[in-house]
Every structure is written in structure tokens, then in C-alpha cells.
């Protein structure tokens, strides 16, 4: 293996093909670098490490733990876990953490999501660039790699699943919900590990779909953002006459919802629903974060329930940073990442799912009727276009709408153009020659015309 760290160290995590792009040797170097950059300077004496069900995950995670221990850190190995279970351990134990997962990527991939104590994110600007630089130096000159310290740390196993589940249930009371039938598609990912414990004892009939842990993903990709991966869940909800369907991604930090008809529920609608509940828990006031491509419904609902909406760029580091800066109660993204102040500002799809179940089970209406209050406007979803020059294309679109009556434009994240009747956002991909279009309008006809017009400008 010839490692090119520029290809695998991303903005927020490490991600690449095993063993072609990285392996256990490099993972041990990452462990040593993580110790030197994040843990030791902060005075941490230990870290926590967990992993998903991919075939390469246990070996990579243990190598990382060994690399950190050789720098004097004690390591709490929590084994199989979801990403939000790792965040729970980081928060509850007040330790830096490393989660080995490639989320929804294919089986040959693996990665590391890193955090400081209290689940605070580690990204390019908060330590990941330094970790990469150290590991690159040690790869280029193996003689410069740090020797094990005289008193290496210990490696201890600990199971945090029951404590994680109990903590989530302490935040949302689902003990008194009416009997519900819920189909859960774990996609052979970590939801199959966490859901039985989190929902155990709750008055629900859970119909499991693909709960067998299998990092080769034999049934479908563990990426519910792609509609084709919801088809089995939708069919099962209809066949079972279920009240709801839930789908988790590979590392179970995102949760998607389908209603009793098998129709997908917009993550923006879930964001608005959870925001209303979190505001009610906090006396009808507080801040809620949403990224700039969530629906108009989100800030509207937040204001209607006494809260203050704050708009951010897309991406978990921006959401978490703004939550920390404002003391926000909750944050939501169009991608079904949901962030909670009571969960160390980290994202947890499982806690959002508990809110959905409590909301549905606390009243008699079907979920489609309940969620209609929070799903007010038609949206395009994300539409990708391949372009040769992203910035030139964005400039061309901006010029085309510069004199549009009532239009305002901002560049918080890509280009957003807004009028009283519609808005659209055009963002460049950081890794591919793509522009991503999201649009919303007051009615379907206007949305279809807007989407057609913008795509004509983008695609020619």
C-alpha cells in the first residue's frame, strides 16, 4: 500500500478503501497522532474507541487503540456501536473518541470520525490537518515515528449500549405511547445492534428488516437518502399495515421516516416536529439551528412555538459550532442529521426517532395527518449536475436572476436566491465536479417551472 493521505483525509473525517488506501499500520499512526494532537495537550489521560460491523473495522479500531496506548493513553474499547453511541460514550465519560465507520459507503471502504472530549467535533480546522501532517511525516520517514513511551496506557473493554439506551430514553418519555407497529430497516448496519436495546420495553411492535450485522450490505446500500434504498421498507410498511417506518444508515447516526402509507417524510418536516417538541420541553423559548436548504417550514414552526431560528451553512461542523455559540436546543439538516443540546450538541438519529414515536403515540391521528402541519411546501430534493466550471456556472445563474422582481441573493453557502414565492440554492460539491440544486416554492407548478429554469441555466 502506498498511502496518499490527501485522498483519504477529508474535511470532517478519514475515509478510504481498505487495504488499497489505508490499513492497520496507518491506523496505528493515526492513533498516535490523535493522542499527540488532541488528547495529550488537553490533559486527557484516556480516549474511547468504537467501531461498526464492517469486516475491516475491528482490526483498524484495535490498531488505532494500540497506537494511542503506546503514547501513554488508556483506551476504553467499546466495540460494536453506532456513531451516536460513540458520541454518548465521549460525552458521558468526558473523553476524546474515535469511531471506525464509513457510514453508507460500500463494503471496501472504512473511515474514522474523531471527536474531542464531550463529543466536540474534530475537522480540518480543529485538529484533523495536524493529525494528517504528523501521520504523513511518519510515513515518509519511519525513523521519525514516535517510540512507545516507557509507561504505555491500558486497553480496557467496556459495553456502553445499555447506558446509551437508558440515557436516550431519559430524554424522551415513550412509556405511555399508544400501541404502535413500527417497521425498522437497519440496512444490515448498526441499527440492528442498537434498536432492540433502545426500544426494548417500549409498548411497540417492532418489525425488523435487515437487522443482521453484515458490512457487505447484501440487501441494499445503507443509505436511506437514496430513494431506491427505501423501497423494501415502504413495501413492508404497507404489507404490515404499520403505523410508521424507520430507516437507519450504516452507522445509525441518521434516521429517515416513512408514514403509514409508505410515503417518505421530509427530514425538514421531522426537523420542524422535533423542534416544536424541544421548544415545548424548554418552556417555549430557545434557539434552533437549521441549514440553508431545509424547508421554509422549519423557521416558521420554530417562530410559531416561541423559538429563534438560526440559519447556517450545510455540514455538521457548522451546525455544531453554531449550536455551541448560541446554546441552541436543537439543530436539523435536510440530510436527516439531528443535533441535540442534551446530547453534547452531537447528532443522533435514534433520539429523533424517539421524538417521532412519542409524537405519534401521544395522539390518535395517523402520522401522515400529524406531520402535515410541518410539511407545508413542495421541494425539489437535491438534484446534481456535472459542470466543468462550478464558479463560472454559479456566476452565470446569479447574473440571470440579478434583476428578477423581488429577488435577493446571498452566498452563505454557494448561491441562494429568494423571492416571496420560491427559493433555490446552488452549491458546489467539495469532491466532485458537481453543482447541487435544492429548490422550494409555494406550489408545485411554481416549483416545477423554477427547477426547469435553473437546470436549463446550469446544464445549457
UniProtKB/TrEMBL annotation:
Keywords annotated in UniProt: Isomerase, Magnesium, Metal-binding, Phosphoprotein
Protein name, as recorded: Phosphomannomutase
Organism in which the protein naturally occurs: Streptomyces griseus
Limits of the Alpha-D-phosphohexomutase alpha/beta/alpha domain: 7-134, 163-262, 272-377
EC number: 5.4.2.2, 5.4.2.8
Keyword Magnesium: yes
CDD domains: PMM_PGM
Gene3D superfamilies from the UniProt entry: Alpha-D-Glucose-1,6-Bisphosphate, subunit A, domain 3 (3.40.120.10), Alpha-D-phosphohexomutase, C-terminal domain (3.30.310.50)
GO molecular function: metal ion binding; phosphoglucomutase activity; phosphomannomutase activity
Cofactor(s) this protein cannot do without: Mg(2+)
GO biological process: carbohydrate metabolic process
Family to which the UniProt record says this protein belongs: Belongs to the phosphohexose mutase family.
Domain Alpha-D-phosphohexomutase C-terminal: 382-455
Amino acid at each position: 500500500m502506498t498511502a496518499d493521505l490527501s485522498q483519504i483525509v477529508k474535511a470532517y473525517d478519514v475515509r478510504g478503501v481498505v487495504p488499497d488506501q489505508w490499513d492497520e499500520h496507518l491506523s496505528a499512526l493515526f492513533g498516535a497522532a490523535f493522542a499527540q494532537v488532541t488528547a495529550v495537550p488537553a490533559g486527557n489521560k484516556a480516549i474511547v474507541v468504537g467501531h461498526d460491523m464492517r469486516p475491516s473495522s475491528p482490526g483498524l479500531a484495535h490498531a488505532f487503540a494500540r497506537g494511542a496506548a503506546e503514547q501513554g493513553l488508556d483506551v476504553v474499547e467499546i466495540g460494536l456501536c453506532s456513531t451516536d453511541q460513540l458520541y454518548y460514550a465521549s460525552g458521558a465519560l468526558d473523553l476524546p473518541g474515535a469511531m471506525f465507520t464509513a457510514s453508507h459507503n460500500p463494503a471496501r471502504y472504512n473511515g474514522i470520525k474523531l471527536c474531542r472530549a464531550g463529543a466536540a467535533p474534530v475537522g480540518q480546522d480543529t485538529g484533523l490537518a495536524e493529525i494528517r501532517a504528523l501521520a504523513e511525516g511518519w510515513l515518509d520517514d519511519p525513523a521519525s515515528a514516535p517510540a512507545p513511551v516507557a509507561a504505555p496506557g491500558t486497553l480496557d473493554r467496556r459495553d456502553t449500549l445499555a447506558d446509551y439506551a437508558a440515557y436516550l430514553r431519559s430524554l424522551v418519555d415513550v412509556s405511555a405511547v399508544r400501541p404502535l407497529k413500527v417497521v425498522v430497516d437497519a440496512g444490515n448496519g448498526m441499527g440492528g445492534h442498537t434498536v432492540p436495546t433502545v426500544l426494548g420495553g417500549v409498548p411497540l411492535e417492532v418489525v425488523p428488516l435487515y437487522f443482521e450485522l453484515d458490512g457487505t450490505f447484501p440487501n441494499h446500500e445503507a443509505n436511506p437518502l437514496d430513494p431506491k434504498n427505501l423501497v423494501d421498507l415502504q413495501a413492508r410498511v404497507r404489507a404490515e399495515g404499520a403505523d410508521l417506518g424507520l430507516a437507519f444508515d450504516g452507522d445509525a447516526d441518521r434516521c429517515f421516516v416513512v408514514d403509514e402509507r409508505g410515503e417518505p417524510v421530509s427530514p425538514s418536516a421531522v426537523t420542524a416536529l422535533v423542534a416544536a417538541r424541544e421548544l415545548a420541553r424548554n418552556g417555549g423559548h430557545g434557539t434552533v439551528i437549521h441549514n440553508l436548504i431545509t424547508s421554509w417550514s422549519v423557521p416558521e414552526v420554530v417562530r410559531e412555538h416561541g423559538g429563534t431560528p438560526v440559519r447556517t451553512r450545510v455540514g455538521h461542523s457548522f451546525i455544531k459550532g453554531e449550536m455551541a455559540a448560541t446554546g441552541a436546543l436543537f439543530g436539523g439538516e435536510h440530510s436527516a442529521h439531528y443535533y441535540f443540546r442534551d446530547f453534547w450538541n452531537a447528532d443522533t438519529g435514534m433520539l429523533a426517532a424517539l421524538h417521532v414515536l412519542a409524537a405519534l403515540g401521544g395522539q390518535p391521528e395517523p402520522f401522515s395527518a400529524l406531520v402535515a402541519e410541518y410539511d407545508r411546501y413542495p421541494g425539489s430534493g437535491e438534484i446534481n449536475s456535472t459542470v466543468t466550471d462550478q464558479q463560472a456556472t454559479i456566476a452565470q445563474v446569479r447574473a440571470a436572476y440579478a434583476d428578477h422582481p423581488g429577488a435577493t441573493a446571498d452566498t452563505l453557502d454557494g448561491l441562494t436566491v429568494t423571492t416571496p414565492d420560491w427559493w433555490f440554492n446552488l452549491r458546489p460539491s467539495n469532491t466532485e465536479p458537481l453543482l447541487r440544486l435544492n429548490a422550494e416554492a409555494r406550489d408545485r407548478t411554481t416549483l416545477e417551472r423554477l427547477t426547469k429554469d435553473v437546470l436549463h441555466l446550469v446544464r445549457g
